[in-house]
Design a protein that fits this description.
By secondary structure, this protein is mainly beta. It contains no helices and 31 strands. It has a twelve-stranded mixed β-sheet, with no helix packed on it. It has a nine-stranded parallel β-sheet with strand order 3-6-9-12-15-18-21-24-27, with no helix packed on it. A hairpin with a 4-residue loop joins strand 30 and strand 31.
Length: 233
Amino acid sequence: MTMGQNVVIEENVTIGQNCSFGHNVVIHSGTVIGDDVVVADNTVLGKQPFKSAVSATTTDTTLTPLVIGNGVKIGAGCVIYSGCKLGDNCFLGDMASVREDVSIGEKTVIGKSVTVENKCTIGAFVKIETGAYITAISTIEDHCFIAPMVTFSNDNYLGRTEERKKHFKGPTLKKAARIGANATILPGKVLGEDCLVAAGSVVTKDVEPGVIVAGVPAKYFGKVKEDQRRKEC
């Protein structure tokens, strides 16, 4: 194991073989780290969430420890919360933030400055690019692609009325769905397998499998060409 200056490792932390930690890394109590993990400078692992007095999705429950699989690489300035599980060979770019109760599958890429809020499930071989925002209570299945600056939302009431708390739900992306840059996906919408959302679109309705939608609001534009579809879909 190699370690930079000012690394803080709290009690009951488990660290595998051949790991590397940059300067000023903080590893909170209970965190479990696999083999061959690389963590860059100024990253915090296993952080406990703060609960705002008006938070609607953060709870006061006891969280399980952060678990980091083998071969994971985590960039500089990242914050990964307790209650998360990162699959083998994931990659997190600089300044990425992953909240509590999040599961991320193997070989998934979480790009620079991406925010993944709490209670999300992200599959394997997913790519989420720079600056995307994944809202709480979202589901992203295997092989999905999310371009830079995509925004998910989960509250049709925009913070007004207690009724909203009964209906919180982020988008669901089925296997191999793709979303272009700067698109916005409204709460609870389901994007079917191997569909494509064009850049800048606003998705206000569910998207059928294998189709392309575009525009504001997003409407049917065509079908994904057969030679561009994943064979598993």
